[in-house]
Amino acid sequence: MGAPLAVRVRDAAATLVDRVPAGEPRALAEPPPGSGLRPVLGEPGLPVLGQTLGFLQNALGSARRLHERFGTVFWTHAFGTRLVLVVGPEGIETVLANREKAFSSERGWGYFIGAFFERGVMLMDLEEHRHHRRIMQQAFKRERLVSYTDAMNPAIARGIAGWEPGLAFPLFPAAKQLTLDIATEVFVGEELGAGADRLNDAFIDVVVGGQAIVRADVPGGKWHRGLASRRLLEAYFRQQIPAKRAGTATDLFSVLCHAESEDGERFSDEDVVNHMIFTLMAAHDTSTITFAMLVYYLAVHPDWQERLRSESRALGTPVIGYDDLDALPAMDLAFRETLRMNAPVGMIARETVADTAIDGHFVPAGTKLMVGIHPTQRMEPWWDDPDRFDPERFSPERRDERRHPYAWAPFGGNVHKCIGMHFGSMEVKAILHQLLLGHRWSVPAGYEPVMDYGTGPFPVDGLPVRLERLAG
Ligand code: HEM
Prior knowledge:
Layout: H1 5-18, E1 26-27, E2 38-39, E3 41-42, H2 52-70, E4 73-78, E5 81-86, H3 89-97, E6 103-104, H4 105-117, H5 126-136, H6 142-161, E7 166-170, H7 171-188, H8 194-210, H9 222-246, H10 252-258, H11 269-300, H12 302-315, H13 329-341, E8 347-352, E9 356-358, E10 361-363, E11 368-372, H14 373-377, H15 421-438, E12 439-442, E13 451-453, E14 457-459, E15 464-469
Parallel strand pairs: 2-10, 3-4, 5-11
Antiparallel strand pairs: 1-3, 4-5, 6-8, 7-15, 8-11, 9-10, 12-15, 13-14
Helix pairs in contact: 1-2, 4-8, 6-7, 6-15, 7-11, 8-9, 9-11, 10-11, 11-13, 11-15, 12-13
């Protein structure tokens, strides 16, 4: 399975674009006199397209090149707008910690995914965000996570049982289907069947719509289909709410219907619908990409695969419970290293709502920002030999991530830090545990997946692996 035609055309265009000589750096805005701040330097790139192709083809290479020319904070044009990119843990901390309340998540993310995920908790700021997050937190408490883990294990076993061993098993689509089936059962409480298929299709359309390049409601286009599917999902969830509110089920949907903060605040029907649609999206690609890339790295590093398999066997249980996670330290090292190498949310969006400073640079109000999690995690001086898969970086003896609290930030940080971090970790590890016990896998020497960029880097060639079932 090679790269799809659209990806090959895009890559050819990006290669031509790379040959266009770089323009003269220009200042985004002059810093106020006496502020001691430097201007943000950058260049727009090509007319209309800006750096879009470069970012889609090779986000890491583009960010590294621009960082080399302009430093840790620079501007360019991409995705139809002017953007400031921030790399390096100091700048990331300034934006995510948001001590002066100068950065809006609602405005930043709203530009990219607002049409599809409006009123999701990530697209809220300040007091409103705090209010919604406190209620939502109830659905991610420890006892809930224990029950979600128990609910997902049978779905994982069923899914993996259907994986046909072979020389080129398409791992990525299989992982996508599996996490979607898990979400349908554990989040929505829907038995797999015809209804679930319709739901899954609508959900995929909404996610794909949010990543469309042509960002307009043109009939037949991805954006148009995404909006229509969003309406379908809204109607589906809204219609189920009375039954969920009346029942005692433990799926995430039911839990959100009943969730109550310590102060007795609850979600309206509208809130539940919006949070369900957003949470399904936030959970899906992220977990799929993490799992698939972890499997890939373990294929390239069979010593690590064997180490993890021995660890899983030593646990002596075919499925793991939430409490078993601490007993899998090697799996945790490989999991963290995969998130460092291949952060599924590669960039975090914000917009400045006041004039401010980032890493010594003046950034005026109304500037769209991309916080470069993926580039920072793959660049010196923040990480040694950053392109090498080396899970021991996270071992108790080294703890390289402690060099700076934001050097490793695949789940973001501060108030918007991923609410599903423990859920996502548990899901990926629960699937991997079962796969390790029943299967071994490898890839041909020198194979590297063809990557595209959605919310972060992901494989587009299906990630074929040689999958074999273990005896016994
Ligand atoms: C390995 C998997 C995952 C990664 C790498 C990841 C990454 C992230 C990141 C970077 C953010 C912060 C965005 C920002 O600051 O603007 C975030 C937020 C969020 N994530 Fe995750 N995520 C993962 C899995 C999940 C799962 C499984 C769920 C749900 C079950 C989830 C639900 C959310 C929600 C609701 C938010 C918004 C939180 C807020 O704004 O308060 N994520 N995620």
